[in-house]
Each structure stands twice: as C-alpha cells, then as structure tokens.
Amino acid sequence: MRGYLYLLMASFLWGTTFVAQLTGMDEIGPFTYGMGRFIIGFFVVLAIWAAFGQRRQRARAEGCYLSGWRFGIGAGMIMFLASAFQQFALLFTTAGKTAFITCLYIIFVPLFARLIGKRIRPENWAGAFVAAIGLYCLSVQGEFDLNYGDVLAFIGSIFWAFHILFIDRYAERADNIELSAAQLAVCAVLNSLACFLLEPFTWQQLADAAIPILYAAVLSSGVAFTLQIMGQRTAEPAPAAVIMSLESVFGALAGWLILGEKMYSVELAGCVLMLAGMLITQAGVILHRR
C-alpha cells in the first residue's frame, strides 16, 4: 500500500504540473522547455542522491546494493520520446484531449504486460476499463475529432506504457534514486541537443518561463518520477498505471483552481469514474488482506 501511496502522490504532482506545461510554452519550444525542466530536475535528484550516501554504504556492506545508473539510461531514452511526443501534441490539440490520449497507457500497460507473460487479474482489467470511460468524460466531453496532435499524443502514450513496464522490471532490484537521476540526465542531454539543433531561442525567453520550468523541474521531474520508481518497487504494473492516470483528475482540478477553467457535470462524473476504477483495481488486495 505504501507503493500505491507513492504513485498517488506522483500523479498529483504530474497533474498540477500540466498547467505549468501549458504556460511554460508560451515563449519557448517543447525541447527548450524540456531542456530546462530536466537539467534542473537532475540536480534536484542528485542532491537527494548525495543525502542518502550512508544508506548506500550500508547496502553495499550488506551485499544488497545494485547501481541504478545503467538501468536509468534505457529509462531515460524511453522517457525522452514519451515526453517529447506529449509536449509537441500540446501545440496542435487541446489539453483535455492530450490528457485523455496520454493516459490511455492504463489500457496499454496491462495489454503489453500480458504479452510479456505477466499475470493480470480480472479486477485490473475492469478497473482500467472504468477509468478509461472516466477519462473520456473528463477530457473529451463528447467531442473527439482526430488531428495531428492527437496522433502524437497516442504515440506518446505507448512510450509511457513502455516506460512504466521498464521501471517495473528494474525498480525492485536497482537503486531507485540513481535510476531516477540517470533517466533525468539522459532526458536533459537529449532535449538540449534537440533544442540547440532544432529550436531558436534566447536566454531571456528561458528566463521568462523560469517559474513554470522550476515547478515542473523540482516537483514533476525531480520528486514525482522518483516517487514513481519507489512506488513501482512494490506495486504491480496494471493497478500502478490506473493510479498514475489520476494525473488527469488532478490536472482538471488544477485548471479549475488556478486557471479558472469551468468543470461541468460530465467532468465531475469522469472524476468519480476514475476514482472508482482505482478502487476496483485494489479490490483483490483488499479482499486478500481481509
């Protein structure tokens, strides 16, 4: 249950960061935004890594330490592709549709997990289905005409599913903080290269977007992705995906509170259905404990 709590905290931070993602690209491009976000996020996690040095020394002495740096390289490559497709999708489609299509990983994760031989319980499928209906009500509001941005978001959701499964494979064995730091470092390097090669920008523009970049860097990149790895250390991938998809609920609430966006009855119903989907995925755990 501690692992699921970590994932719930991560989804809250990701959801509130969605506002920062939108406002942060008012003056700069997606790769420039990603460069600032992941560079600062890397140094945040690096500070956390330094603070836990004694714990790593004890783990080495006990023979239960496995470095997470090399595993983080693969995770970072996947995360770079997933985040890049998501950021570019926001340039061509609405925030609601981007959130809905991105969170389709709640369907892809159990499907891909089943293909690689993992057992998926019936309540996980049921919870994912209910949560997907809730996502539709929350994000699309009955209007769904596909465009170029929707295709980009769809491709991004597949890479987010791969990222969840990759973390599920290595989080239990490797040092979580090192894995998080390594993936952020890879994202920082790749976004920086793409920024300097493909996007014109000035340092003044980067400074103007400092507040949304800092929010996303510290809380979303630095803290939330570390919480994801810590949560997936014990959580199963299918219910983990449903819990993380609650970022769309928190994103809608953040838009209502911060940006003054209206929430209609269909959106509130979507929030309720998503929460129901999360509870359904936990039904097996609750009954087993009883």
Structure write-up:
By secondary structure, this protein is an all-alpha fold. 80% of the residues lie in helices and 0% in strands. It has 15 helices and no strands. The chain has helices spanning 2-24, 30-51, 53-62, 69-89, 95-102, 105-115, 122-139, 148-170, 176-198, 203-208, 210-232, 237-244, 247-258, 265-281, 283-289. The longest helix has 23 residues, at 2-24. The chain is globular and about 55 Å long. The chain starts with a helix and ends with a helix.
Q: How many E strands? A: 0
Q: What is the ordering of alpha helices and beta strands?
A: HHHHHHHHHHHHHHH
Note the beta-strand portion: under 5%
Q: In one word, what is the shape? A: globular
How many H/I helices? 15
Structural class: mainly alpha
Please summarize what this structure is.
The chain has 290 residues and is an all-alpha fold. It is built from 15 helices and no strands. It has helices at 2-24, 30-51, 53-62, 69-89, 95-102, 105-115, 122-139, 148-170, 176-198, 203-208, 210-232, 237-244, 247-258, 265-281, 283-289.
Protein topology:
Elements: H1 2-24, H2 30-51, H3 53-62, H4 69-89, H5 95-102, H6 105-115, H7 122-139, H8 148-170, H9 176-198, H10 203-208, H11 210-232, H12 237-244, H13 247-258, H14 265-281, H15 283-289
Task: Give the tags.
mainly alpha, 0% strand, 290 residues
